[in-house]
Structures are given as structure tokens and as C-alpha cells.
Protein 1
Amino acid sequence: QSAERWFMKAMKAYQSGDLIIEEAADIVIKTMWSSNEYLNDFQKYFDEELLAGNPFVEDLRNDPNSMDSLRELFEMCRESGTTAALLLFKYISLLLNAELNQSISQSGTTGPFAHYDHLRPAFRQPSEVDLKEAALLRKIFTQANPNMQDFLTDDIYAAMKYTLLFNCYGFSLEDPSTSASASDEKQSKEFIRNVVKISDAKVIGLFHIASHIEHSSNPNCSVAYNDGSIKIYAQREIQESDSITVSYIPNIHTLEKDVCQVKLLAQFGIIEDQ
């Protein structure tokens, strides 16, 4: 039985332009498809994006087999221009670090990663790429945690990968409301929320609260990003107990209804009544 999904509702009334919430990301990572300074520099990406002060990853540095597999994973992502496997590496390593420090709540309602079971799930059959990524991640983590070989099955990896992608926001390092383009110049297999253009999405972030905000083609809120934090602003008057909604697709008001519905179904599995 799946956990109850969380939704975000207004705790009070807001006026247009009001800041509803600002929160730091549970996990944020620069994308491979836009971070050109990292594309040919594994050590730079490891030090600045994957390590990021995480003691668990620091320990991996001393294991040549784990580092060789991580470098191979990095090269796969670099060649394909995708980021999800590196996002999963960072997410799992932070989970393991929290577990080692016994900081994951047993209640499932608090702590930086306790909300995963309450996210909207996105299940897909593992692709050939998923199978390769999962095998490399098992190699990376098994030395430090032998249980990972049994836990991170191909199906579990695919479920985690697509659930995280579905619930992550993609940002340029500019205000999406001023820089968004109605069309994606570069197609990607990685569909994340509020992407400006897939080639302009510099970072991906998962958030403890904001990742539970529902989509609407007529949203009452807008999204902005600054230095690892997300900001949710009211776009119009919102009453207490109203659902907080954002658009998962940039500039959705410029799209024809049919185009919008196709994008929502193809990218997020959403069928929206309009």
C-alpha cells in the first residue's frame, strides 16, 4: 500500500506578489546538459557537485573500485547529456549518510528525506540505460554497504529515478518568469518541472515542501530560484485552504490546449480536465 500523498494548501490568505514559501533544496545538482565547465572534468564535478560536504562520499574517495565505477557513470552521463544517474548517486549517498548518523526519522514525516514516500510516484519499465546505471550504482555503493546489492534492484532504481525526476524542478540561474521559452530547442528524456529550455536548465532541485505542489494549467503561484533555494509567489489572490498550484511547463499560457495536454501526458503522465 502506497503512502498517502502530500499536497500543499494555503495556511492563510495571500495577495498577488506575496511570498508564500522559501526553502532550501533537500538536494540540488548542476545538470550535465548545461554545465559545460564540468563536461570533461570528472574531478571538478565530483568535488563541487557529488561530494558537497557529504562524509559518505568522502569515504568513497579511498575506494578505487567505487571511484572507477563512479567515473564510468559520469562518462555515461556526459556522453548522453543526462543527469538523473548522478542525481540518484547524490541522493542515495545522502540517504546512507543520514542512516549512518541515525538521522532518518522512523515516523516517515520529518527529516530531509522522509517525504520521498509521499511524492507523486512515476513508474516506468527499466530501459537498457537504466539497467547500466543501476549496475554501476550497485558497484559504487556495495563496497561501503553490502545490502545495496539486494536493495537497489533494477525496478527500484527505475522507480526512484523517474519519481525523483518527476518531482524535481529545473532552473536556469535567472528568473524563469523572465527567461522562459515556450518551446524546448533540445529534447531530453529527462522531464523535470518548470524547465525553461532543457538546454538552459542549469540545476535540478528536490524540495521537502515545494516538490509536493500540484500542477495546474491555470496556476495561482509562480516559481523562482536563487542560490539553492526555491521561492513560491502568489500570482493572484489566494484564500486560506486553497490548493497551491504551479505550472510544470514554462509559459503554459502561450500553448494551445491540445499541445498542452500532449506535453502533460507525455512528460508527466497528467491528464488534466480543462
Protein 2
Amino acid sequence: MRKLAKNRYELDPERLASTDEYGNRVYIYPEDVQGKWKSRRTKVYWGLIFVYLILPWIYINNKPALMLNIAKREFTILGNTLYGVEPIIIFLMLISALFFIAFITSVYGRIWCGWACPQTVFIQSIFLKIEAFIEGKASQRIKLDQSRMSVEKLLKRSVKWLIFTIISLHIAHTFIGYFVGPRELFMITMNSPSDNFGIFIATMICTLIILLDFGWFREQFCIIACPYGRIQSVMMDSSSKVVAYDYNRGEPRTGAENFSKDNAGDCINCYHCVKVCPTGIDIRRGTQLECIACTQCIDACDAIMERIKKPSGLIRYTNEDELQGVDKKKNYRPYIYLLFLTVFIFSFFYFLDSSTKPNLVFLRGRGAPFLSSMADGKTSITNKFTLKVKHQGAEVYSIRLSIHNNDDNEIALTLSESPILLDEPEKKVFAFFRFKQSVLTKGTKKVLIDVVDLRTNESISQREVTLVGPVD
């Protein structure tokens, strides 16, 4: 009896669905699917797209709700503006985002990839929809791809890529708007590209990257370029929720070597779960790097189970412990990630709050550390400092400096500007301390400087300054 050829979806475990036996790329054309998970994802996708497109156009206190102007070193979030953001704040933002993803991954696997990654969101919601509208269903797109060039094929491909380009331009302009402000970008686009050549080039590069990635590279980015798929195994364990096939219930599947009517599993080997997968994997082989947890296979399998009068959930959100029937183990990994995440978030807001207040740095003047003069037969000492006042917030401060516990006025403080008006990110002021030599102890004296907010007449911070003079 002649052995039947393998189904074209039945690939060698070592071979990707997106490559042929010679290593050449095989384009993935996922079939459309309907179901409760797709309905949920669609709502999430369009919610995220709406936020992405609308957020920079929302102005609070005449500032975009979110803007990171690197050229001007200006960071605005919800109407609050920081200038020259401290490296510690950037670090805490990045490390918080990393631990947030680690926490989510440890609980729900690659839910980020399937539900919130911009690549998945835009491809599934816009680019694949346009492609299906112009070129037809998956089978029609495959047939068109394999056919020779014709007027129909040229026309369809041209229209598709023209629309892809227009959408990519819009996405790219919105992205650049987060860095220069949408209103400013709109006015820039009204002028010649040569007037703002740097921004023009940056926008065109972003457009080209988005166009090639969302329109052509697609699943190859998830499989080849994205590092997240390769580090997810470090964050996950057997208790992490993943999209998985219940092999206990499904095997032996129809057509398997040990299959018979007496021991038949629920899987009928229809390959519908493979046909709808955007990366072309067979979820029945277990958790794989290429799986982006988009749940397309769940809806596809549930539809088949309903058709053959079987319970849904053959493919579902579950974990390896449940599939193996082992007792649920206490998993402390998510709690550790959550603990670190909480610490970093609180640290971020602490440094963010402190950075919006005036930050004073006293730098000793160049030349001699002190100057001596005689008055009424007594030696008077003068120390000169350059005072740098950094102010990252948009709030305007008016501050006064005074020496703490200087009731006898034994130390006189003179500033080149007093009170100091903080209406810009950084200001330099000259400070002169004049005192009698008797104030010093072994040639030095440490004093505290009170920084008083004139709006409330309260001290908002203190700085220590070391005064020097001759040693007796």
C-alpha cells in the first residue's frame, strides 16, 4: 500500500513555516477567523490605535499630553514639563517598563505580543484588512502571489502599496509628533522640506521602516529580529498562562499512527489552527518562540469543535502544570517582579517630584579660595561661589537664600540676583559670603543655606556650603 504524502502543513519540527526546504521565504497568508477572542482583541487594538493617534493632539496647559522633545531637552507628560531630564529618571522609566513586561510575561506569557505590540496591532487591524479587501481571502492571495505578472496583479499590488504608503506616512508623522509636537509638525509640513531637512529625513526613514515592516517583513520581525521572544523563557515557567493545545484531550488525533475509532482524540487534524496563525506555527507542538499569543488558533479550534459537537477549549489559555495534571505549585516569580516594579515606580515618582523643585549647586570661584581684607583692625574674609540653579518643571519659582541659624548676622550673604526668579531650566548666580576670621574653626566653617519659596515663605530645601579662610 502506497504511503500518502504528508499534508503541506505537516512540517519537520526543525523547519519554520515561513521557509521552504531550501531556506527561501514562504509568505504567510493567515485566514480570517471569527470568535470571542478576536472580538476582544479588536476592541483592544482599536483602543490602542485611538490613543496613539489622539494623545499628542490633546493639549494640557498649552502643552501636548505627551511629548519628548530631545532637541530642546524638554519632556512633557499630562501638562507637566521637565527640562533636561535627569538620567536617573530615564533609567527608572526604562527599568520599570522592563519589569512590568517581565511581570506580565510571568503570569500571561507573550500577551504583550498578541494584544499590545504595535506591530501586531497595526498589521492585524489595518494592513491585513486592506490586503484582504484588495486581493481577496487567503486562498485568493496565495493564488495571486503564485501567478505570473498580469495587469490585474500589477494593479492590485500597486493600489495596495499606495494605500500602505499613505497609512505609513500618517503613522510616521504621528510618531514624529511625539517628539516635536503635532501642531509644530503640522506647520512644518506646510513649508518646504529643505526648511526642516532633519525632521523631513527622520519622518521619511520612519515611514520606510513602517512600510517595509508592516507591509512586507511582518512575521519575520517576530521570528528573527524581536529579542522578546528569545528572553520570554527566562521570565516564564510551567505555571505561566499561555495559549496551548490540550494534548491529553486531543490525542491521538485523526490520521495519527496510533489512531483508531476506539481511542480517538477530539482533534480531527483539520489544520485550521495552523491556517489562521500569523506566524504559521502548529500550536499542537507546544509553546514555541514564534507564538505571539494572538489567540487566533483558539477561535479557529472552537469553531471546529462547535461544528463537530465537541466541547470548546481544546486550544485555550492554560499552563503546563494544568495540562500535566500536577498540583498547582506556588509561583513566587511574579511577586518578585511585582516587588521590583513597585520599588522602581515609587523611586521614579520620588525623583520626578524632587527634580521639579529647584536644585542648587555651589561651585567655588576660580583663583584664590578666599580673599582677605582689613576693616576696623579686624580681618574680613570673602568666599566667592558660582551658584547653579536647575529647575526642570514648568512652574515658575521665586526663591530667597538665607543662612540657617545666622541670628547674629556673623556671616553676610550677597547674591548677584535676589530674589532669584526661576523662569528657565538653568540659571547662574554669583554668591559672596563675607565674615570675620573668628567665625572659622581651624580655617573652615560649614553653614546651611535655606532655600525659601517666596510664594509660601517656607523653606523647600537646604544646601551645605563650606567656607574657608586662613588657618591661625
Protein 3
Amino acid sequence: MKRLLTTLILGLTALFLAACSNQNSLDGEYYEIDEYSNDKIIVIKGDEGTVVAEAATRNMTVDTDLQTFEVSGFVNPTVTYEYKDGVLTANFTGSDETYYKKGTNAYEDALEKYDYSDDN
């Protein structure tokens, strides 16, 4: 009985940790959603991604430990970011911008706020 209880607790702990780590994963598509646009700006997969900035699509690497992007072709290639609950904030163009991760509550809330459907 004691061994079964210990196994059950370890299993639940592993599930909980996996669920938490997936929520904080940067992998996905990020949209700039405001009254003027609903545009995909960033795509991240693992430690690589792309960003549409300065009128071009640029490759970047992701450092989750330092919370930075290294963007190719930028004069100052290191861009810091913050990520929480589906909202990514970064300064690619001279001012902090907010990007919403597709499939999160934050993304859905932004679409609703600015009267976009998920099909736009």
C-alpha cells in the first residue's frame, strides 16, 4: 500500500511538472493584435525562430535562460523579452510591443477585444 501511494504521488508530480513546463514553452506562433492589425510576427520552435521586423523576415535564436533573442541582420542583435501566460513582450523595433501566442487565453481575449475572429 505504501509503495502504491508513493508511486501515485510521483506520477502526479511528474504530470504537474510537465503541464507547467508546457504552459511556459515559447514554441508557437505570436500575433500582434491591436485596433490596426492582426498579424503573425513571430514563430518559435525550440531555440530557433523567425520574426518579421524592419520590413523583413529575420532568423533568430532563443536563449530562454537569459530571456533574449539574437536576431540576424540587426545592428543590435540582442533583444530581451518577457513571457507570461501567453503574452510575449519584446522590443524589436525601438519600443516594447506585445505579442499574443496563438491558442492561449490571452490570444483569444485579444481577438475578442479588437473584434477579430480566429480566421483573420
Protein 4
Amino acid sequence: RRLRPDGALLLPRRHVGEGRSLMGDYQRDDLYDRPQAVVDFRFDERTAAVFPDMIHRSVPGYATLLQLLAVIGADIVPPGGRVYDLGCALGGTSIALQQHMTADASIIAVDNSAAMTDRLAAYIAGSGIANISVEQADITTLELAPADLVLMTLTLQFIPPDERDALLKRIRCALRPGGALLLAKKPRPADDRLRRWHEAFKAAQGYSQLAIAQKRESLEHIMQTDRYAAVEARLHRAGFRSVIPCFRALPFCAWVATAA
């Protein structure tokens, strides 16, 4: 087994054509290396083309996070179960999980970015993965069928704050008995040292101070983070009774939220 470019420990990598990956040729993330008039961050084709490199170099412990979500998720999803991966991006969490589920369980991977879903759908089709379907949709309005597990990996911080409680409540209502939400998020640190250490981590991965500063500016208006305690409070308000932390790496955290 090898790491996929987005950090997923998973399928042997296949190629088509002139050595091209089924998900395309991914590039090094240099979007903010040059001085520029910074605009709001977008999950467009430019971002999709560098996303595996971006997320691996920006999120400490990302590969471990995906493996943990896969192992925990597999313990929750029954044979024939249904999973939603909301804000799936290039599907790292879905692809990690599907290797641990029974073959008759299914994952619906959803993202509002066509650049992401097109690449993910092409990879899944080319890899012959039968139990992941991909849908381009707005997760804040998506009608959810009854599900055993919902995944949200680094997605909630991009939902407008005044829409987060309603989305979490809809997820809770869609879960079958024994179901759960696996939520990974970047809360706003209470201690500014966590922010500084995270930026030091990115510098250690090869990002320049210019790139770090310009990306921070691009995210300022679209990534509005909650405090750690506020995330747990939202989960409880949505009707989750058990909220268990399962991962932490600098400011990044993950929880298992269940009804029981």
C-alpha cells in the first residue's frame, strides 16, 4: 500500500496514457508563492490541481487523520450501510473508508466544486471502485436519505456560521439508530501559539512566509472558525448526546458524534 497524493493510504496507483494518474497530474502547491492581488480562496480548477500537495503540506497529521476516520467509520457502518461524505473534495476520506467497509456498503461523496467532483469521479471510474458515487451539490440544501455515517473532513469551517447549526441538525436527523457523524475541523485556537506553530509547520513543509501570509489573507472571509468549545456546543445543540474527541494536531481536531 502507498500514500495517495492527498494522504490517503489506499489503492495501488494505476496509470493511463503517458504515465498519467487516473486523477490527473497533480502539481506542487505554488498558488501563493508570488506577490499578487489576493482574492478570496476558491475550490476551483487551480486549487484542485494542487490540492493533494496543499492539504498534505498544510494539515499536520493529515494521513493519520484519514486512517483514523476510516478505522472508526468502519466500526460504525454495518453491512449494506449508507455513508455520506459531505464536502468530499478529492475523496481522501471516502477512499480510505471504502477499503475497510463491506463491499455492499456505499458512500455518497458530495461537494459543490465541479473541479473536485469531476476529478474524483474520473479517479473512481478508472479505479473500478463500485461503492462510491459522486455528486456535485450544495450540502446545506442537499436532501439526505437515512444514513449510518456522515463524514465531514475539514468542511464545516467553510459553511457560513449562521448555517452550521441547521446543517448539523439535518445530519443528526438523517442518522439511523447507532449512526454517527465523524467531524474533522480547524477550530480557532484559544492560544495564539497554536496558530504560530501551525504556520511554522507549513514553513517546515517548504511554504514561504509570503505564501503563508497571502493564503491566510485569501481565507480570511470564507473560513470563519469556531472555538473548540463552540464546535462541541453546536454538536450537542444538534441533538448529539455523545461527542468524543478522537484526533488533535495543533489546531486541527476531530470528533465522533453519536446520538447515544
